[in-house]
Automatic annotation (TrEMBL):
<comment type="similarity">
    <text>Belongs to the TRAFAC class myosin-kinesin ATPase superfamily. Kinesin family. KIN-14 subfamily.</text>
</comment>
<keyword id="KW-0067">ATP-binding</keyword>
<dbReference type="InterPro" id="IPR036961">
    <property type="entry name" value="Kinesin_motor_dom_sf"/>
</dbReference>
<feature type="region of interest" description="Disordered">
    <location>
        <begin position="504"/>
        <end position="524"/>
    </location>
</feature>
<dbReference type="GO" id="GO:0007018">
    <property type="term" value="P:microtubule-based movement"/>
</dbReference>
<feature type="binding site">
    <location>
        <begin position="179"/>
        <end position="186"/>
    </location>
    <ligand>
        <name>ATP</name>
    </ligand>
</feature>
<dbReference type="GO" id="GO:0003777">
    <property type="term" value="F:microtubule motor activity"/>
</dbReference>
<dbReference type="InterPro" id="IPR001752">
    <property type="entry name" value="Kinesin_motor_dom"/>
</dbReference>
<keyword id="KW-0547">Nucleotide-binding</keyword>
<feature type="compositionally biased region" description="Polar residues">
    <location>
        <begin position="512"/>
        <end position="524"/>
    </location>
</feature>
<dbReference type="InterPro" id="IPR027640">
    <property type="entry name" value="Kinesin-like_fam"/>
</dbReference>
<dbReference type="InterPro" id="IPR027417">
    <property type="entry name" value="P-loop_NTPase"/>
</dbReference>
<keyword id="KW-0175">Coiled coil</keyword>
<dbReference type="GO" id="GO:0008017">
    <property type="term" value="F:microtubule binding"/>
</dbReference>
<dbReference type="GO" id="GO:0005524">
    <property type="term" value="F:ATP binding"/>
</dbReference>
<keyword id="KW-0493">Microtubule</keyword>
<protein>
    <recommendedName>
        <fullName>Kinesin motor domain-containing protein</fullName>
    </recommendedName>
</protein>
Amino acid sequence: MLVLGEDQISSMPTVEKLTEEVAMASSPDSFDGLPMASPESPSSTLVSFTDVKVVPEQQQKGLEQTILHLEGEVIGLRLKKRSLDAKRREALNKILDIKGSIRVFCRVRPFLITDKRRNQEPICVRSEKLAVSFGGSKKEFGFDKVFPQNASQEDVFMEVEPILRSALDGHNVCIMAYGQTGTGKTFTMEGTNNLPGIVPRTLKELFDQASMDSSNEFTFSLSMLEVYMGSVRDLLAPKPSNRIHHGSSKCNLNIQTDPNGCVEIEGLTNVSVSDFTQASRWYNKGKRARSTSWTNVNESSSRSHCLTRITVGRSGGTEEAMEEFSKLWLVDLGGSERLLKTGATGQTLDEGKAINLSLSALGDVIAALKRKRGHIPYRNSKLTQILRDSLGDDSKALMLVHVSPSEEDSGETTCSLNFAKRVRAIESNKELPEDLKKQRERRISELEEVMRDAEEECQKVRNQIQKAELILHETKKLFKARYRRLQDNDNIIPVKPQECKKELTGMPQTAEKPSQRNSSSSLPRFMTSTAASRHRHGAVEEEISSRVKPLRPLHRVSFQFSGSQSISYSDTHFRTSLQGSIKKPRHGDANEPMRDTTNCNGLDPKTPSMPGNKRVTTSYSNLKVALPRHRRRMSDLI
Ligand SMILES: Nc1ncnc2c1ncn2[C@@H]1O[C@H](COP(=O)(O)OP(=O)(O)OP(=O)(O)O)[C@@H](O)[C@H]1O
């Protein structure tokens, strides 16, 4: 793929300049007289024509050059947008790295009606620290973020959101909810209809963000599984195999790891989802299939780990670009309670044991990753085998530890917080020194500013691309409409400017000698008509010319491009179609600010009606050299 150099991009006139000039040129003042050869214009070839069918070669070439010039402009802008996007991604990645690739948040559940309240609450939240009183002593734990009892679902999601962007940027991401039974793991991940949790919000956010990113194509697919008693169960499998817990191929799936460390689960249902509604429907189906049972602590306690995987496919928006995939795991872990308290016996006791074993294996893996040990004990549980490629290098993990506010749960709370401490590997009283902390915060805010600037700039470039594409589209449409029609026309008669005056004052036209050119030979390749279309157009043209003899008065719309190119069209078709396009954005993206396009193109609906007249001039000196390159790049990138 050919890539434009910085100097080439910067030497191109910007779309702002183009549209500004378009606006100027299309103001009524710009139609101040007859089209005449400009003394400044190096192209002394400027000729005016009294007939819309008169098409000198220069005019056609000028239009071709404008098209190619605009194509170059669009490519340049796309490259600029790509580099800004890379800048934003790099800044975000650095921020997440500084914050830690495995971060631990804590959420304290509010009191429930069923909780026995005491005067003395065992838990005390202070900024990013949480103190627990248990057995006569008070212990403090530090977190990356603590959500107190009154924190809303939005508050939690706001902190989770940046990591989602990482998944769209190509990183594997894992968000896990950990905690004792009944502390709100499922509430945080699933939420309720009125208070949706992380999973539904994530699905919505991913589709929203993907629709705003016009430089990448995204695809999404969804899988859901449950690690139940050490076996992997497909939650989206067709019903019959779902019901049978044993002996079905969908009930104990194999986990495969390739030499690069990429994990795949054999036979796991993976459904493509194209919008939020579809994704939610599948997610709700998977939820219903999850194993739950009654315990003393929580009426519908989850007896398994429930894992939702969103596979994000991302391609650079070009045909040649390979699609890259990243995984986003949203994990609602089974309750971490000590088994005696739950009153579990029989199968429920076994389920509890299985959950605890795998949670302990998860703790070992994260602790080993934190200490950057050579050997990471992924193989000790199904859970860690599945998450292997989303917990290690280059991936981002977030653990939300849930605790109860009740005094009677303070033993369990301490256990959960000890687990979190191990995962986080930093105890609050061994926190970073104050100056280092400040330095870290400063660096993070610098990077956040870089990210914000890149995003803002990116949005501007996105708008510029839209405008340039709109003008390009309409120019191409005009080119097609005009020159295809004229290919078979032998009566192409250029006339001198003076004669144009006569036309405007109602004088009869004087035809000069017909043009001998073969218009198709000078058409850009993308405009060349096929034999069939030529035949079709020829037939239509014949019919039209036999019926319509006199010239109808036409409106003129004028475009003035930088690089001393100007085009003015006396064409109602072009004018109407351009206005139509402005009213209705071509890309249909409601979020893209298209409304100001009208102003940028400067089309004045009150543009005076002018008799048939066309003018094309060009003196963009570098264009000829740059044309073939632009064209190749266009095919590389679009
Ligand atoms: N932040 C919260 N705000 C309001 N209600 C909450 C909150 N957290 C939890 N709850 C309520 O507490 C109860 C238990 O929560 P939930 O089922 O999410 O716990 P859990 O940790 O997933 O339990 P298990 O491990 O047994 O599945 C539910 O009724 C839930 O609505």
